[in-house]
C-alpha cells in the first residue's frame, strides 16, 4: 500500500460559489453595489472620466478615456470576462460626499425615484474567481472624487469582503497594487489585508513595466475573535457613533482593530 500523503492542512470546505450577477449589496453609509449594466455607462463616464479625472486612471489598466464609446468598450470587455463581476456604486439619500461642491451628485441623490437615476460614484469589482481554490480578488477599484475618503468608500470593500467570506464561502480574498500606487497599498493595510510580497516585472501596462504587490485577507483573520479581527474592526469603525455630523471619523480603523477584546468590543 502506498504511503503517499500530501503535506499541508486538510481542506474540508466545499468549493466556493460564484458571485451572483443579479445580487445588489446594500450598505449602511449611503451606498448600494449594483451589478453593472450597460445602462450605467453614461453615468459612470460622467463620474470618473474627463480631463478633471485623469489622475484617477494613473494606475488603471486602461484609460483615461476621452469618449463614452471607448469607456463603454472597456467595461463591456470586462463584463464579458467570466472571472469578472463589476459593481456600480450608487448613492442613496444618506450618502455624504467628500466634496460638498459636488452639486450634481447631491442633486441626483435627492431626486425622486421617478426622476433621474442617482449619479454613480464609481466601480468596484470581484475578479479572478477560483472557487475550487477558495480564492477571489477585489480589484479595479475606481472611485469618483466625491466617494474618496468617505465612510462609504471603506464600506464598499467591507461589503465585498463580507459577501465573499460569509455568503460565497471563500477562504482568501486578494488585493493587488501597482508597486508605485502608494495610496492603494496604504488602503490595503488599513483595511486589514496582509502584504505577501511583490511579483517583479509582473505586467506591462500602457507600455510601462509594472511590479505588483500582493495582499490578502483570509478567513481566519476575518472571523477572528478579538485583537486583529478584520471583520470586527471594520464593523466597529463603520458604526454611526464613530462619526461626527460631518461624517468625520472619531477613531481610526487601525486603532479600533488593534484594541478589540475577545468579545469583539473595542
Tell me what the structure shows.
- The chain has 266 residues and is an alpha+beta fold.
- It has one domain: Aminopeptidase.
- It has 8 helices and 8 strands, in the order E-E-H-H-E-H-E-E-H-E-H-E-E-H-H-H.
- An 8-stranded mixed beta sheet has the order 1-2-3-4-5-6-8-7.
- It is globular and about 65 Å long.
- The N and C termini lie far apart (54 Å).
- Mean pLDDT is 92; it is low at 100-115.
Q: SSE layout and pairings?
A:
Blueprint: E1 25-26, E2 31-35, H1 41-48, H2 68-79, E3 84-91, H3 103-110, E4 122-130, E5 135-143, H4 151-167, E6 172-178, H5 182-191, E7 194-205, E8 208-218, H6 219-223, H7 230-238, H8 253-258
Parallel strand pairs: 5-6
Antiparallel strand pairs: 1-2, 2-3, 3-4, 4-5, 6-8, 7-8
Biased composition (Basic and acidic residues): 1-10
Keywords: Transferase
Pfam families: Acetyltransf_3
pLDDT averaged residue by residue: 92
- What is the CATH architecture annotation? 3-Layer(aba) Sandwich
CATH fourth-tier homologous superfamily: Gcn5-related N-acetyltransferase (GNAT)
Structural class: alpha+beta
In a nutshell, what does this entry contain?
This protein is an alpha+beta fold and 266 residues long. It has one domain: 3-Layer(aba) Sandwich (Aminopeptidase). It is built from eight helices and eight strands, in the order ββααβαββαβαββααα.
